[in-house]
Every structure is written in C-alpha cells, then in structure tokens.
Amino acid sequence: MKNFLSMIAIAMPMFLGAQTAFHNFGEVKLHSDANVGFHTDFINDGNLDNNNEGLAGFYSDNDIRSISGDNRAVFNDVEIDAINDIELYTSVGVTNDLSFVNGKVFTTRDNANTSLDFINHNVYAGEDDQRHVDGYVSVTGSNNFVFPIGDENSLRPMIISTQAAASSFKGAYFAVNPNNAPYNYDTAQKQIFIDNVSNNEFWDLDGASETSVTLTWNNDSDINDISSNVNLLRVVGWSESEGKWIDLGRAGVTGDVNSGQVTSNPFTPNNFTVITIGSEFSNSTLDNVNLIFTPNGDPTNETLIFEGLEQFNGNSLTIFNRWGNVVYEAVNYKNDWRGESTGRATINKKKDLPVGTYFYTLDIDTDNGSKTQRGWVYIHR
User: Fold this and answer.
1) What is this structure's pTM?
2) Nearest 5°: CA angle at 149, between 183 and 122?
3) Stretch 194-220: mean pLDDT, rounded?
C-alpha cells in the first residue's frame, strides 16, 4: 500500500465527514510532483478537470471504496489498489496511465453514463481476471484500444480498430444469456446466413463512428455450442429496428474452441443494441430456405433480398421456373432482382415474370470455400 505523499492544490474547500470521505466542493489542481493517496471514499462536487498532473491512488486493505458526486473527476496517472474493489457512482477520467494493482472497478450496468474514461487513448497495465472494469469503459482518441472489461472474475477484452480521426466509444461485457429478461435479444431471430448466436454472453459497444471490433472468448463462452469450427465464427449485432441478429462479418479469426478472438468487418456501433459471437451457416443448414417478395411498385419488399450477403467474398445466383428453365442468373448478386426474366432461354427479356413459385440456387464464396443455399422464392405482385 502506498502512503499519502503530497498534494499541491488551489481553491480547495472540502469536508472529510468524520474521516469517512474526501469531499471536494471547490477547485482542485494537482501539479506535476503531486502524489495523492485516497484512503477514504471520494466525493467530487467541485472542479477536478483534465489539466491535472501527478498521480492519484485509491487504496484500501479491507473496505469497498466508492467514488461519487455531481461531477466527473479527471486525473493524470491513476493507481488502483483496493483489495475489495472500487465502485463508481460518477465517471472518472484518466489522461495518462492507469495501473491495476488490486481489485476491480465496478460501474452500474443500468446506466452507461457512468464509466471509467480513458482520454486520448492512453495506456493501462496489470489487468487480469481479478483486476479489470466490471461495467463500462469509454475511450476517446484515434488509436486501436483494448477495453479492460469483464464480468465478475473473467476479463473479456473487446478491441476497436485504429480510427481515421479522434473518435469516442464506450463498452461493457455481460456474462449473461441475451435471451433473458430484461434484455430479450432473441437468438432464434437472425439473418438466414447466421447459423447460431451465443446464448452465454454479449457486449455493449456504443459509438457514432464506423469501426471494426474484435471479440474474445474463453472456456466459459462454450464456443462449441456455436460452432466446433472456429473458422465459422463471426461477429453479430442485435438490430432493435429489425428485431433480429445481423451478420457483421469476419475479417479474421484466431485460436481454438477454448480461447481466441474474432474480428468483424467495419460497422457503426450505434446501429446495434449489443454485439456477440455467432457462426455462419454450413451447407447442411441452408437447404429449403424459402423467400417471398412483392415487386409491385410500393416502397417495400421490391427486390429479392438475401440478408447479410454483402458480408461474403462473392456469389452466384441462378433462378429456375417450375419446368427447370433458367429465368435469371447473376454473378455477385446485389439484392436487386425485381422478378424480371433474363435467362438464356428467355424470349422476352426484362419482362416481368408471372406470380408464382420459382426455385433458386445461391453459391456463396466464403473464407472456408464455396457453400450453397437452395430453396424456393414466391413472387407476389
């Protein structure tokens, strides 16, 4: 445990409350040679902004430490050495380095506005299963960043990619079934190219800038329940507007069923309520996938859409009538067919096909080779 060393402060009225809390009502300034040790709870109702320097440490051998107040406190370097953890009831900012020595930092999961904030993508050290943020972390900057987040005694990092410009993101990890209340992110509701979605965990990632994200797994993730082949894993996101899980792609995957990580294609986090790990289809799961569309000139359902098709490397689509004649073919289909006849044997090309049932074969190029989906499509005008 570090002892209280020194603090240089200006305009700093405070009340210690019978030594149970350090309560700042005024304006605190930490200078470059300041070393401040908080051995009590900390309440900030004053001004403690990001112009501070030096080191602030939060220490306890026994008690749970809390940080609260009306205003966010921003420190330069921070050290956390509280064996029985720290609870944040207001956000705390770090502009330089953070050291996890002992204990976790807890934030409320009911309100993402309270978080441990890394300002300018600066660094931390010492994180592990017993030392991390159990709740929300935010980051502002342009470098890639590994969120030191977890749930209880499990560190489950989430990584965002390097940004073209300074951006802000916030995230947390939840070791709970997304199907359960109050979340109700039904893993049975998903795009057709998604085979399975994790029933064990999810992450919340917020941000208005496009990014790719890397999710991690360990033995608690039960990856075998999603896929025994880690090369089939993908990142998926829950769309509240569509009420289903959307394929966010796979830019890369490493590891085995016991531990590893999978990286998405770029997406905008604010478009999805939560994200987690899913798997792509296998050939055996995609026979008899049947679709209906209505190319009748109204604003909806005008083209034949295979949701998530854009996440794959390439494709070829062939559509037959009930006599086996090809009425439509496309390489790298763009979800833009309106039910016109364009097959080789068609006499009146570009003529609308009649209402009825047609059959299709969709060959998809994936990182694991070509796969095929078959089924029927019904045109209703």
Assistant:
1) 0.86
2) 135
3) 97
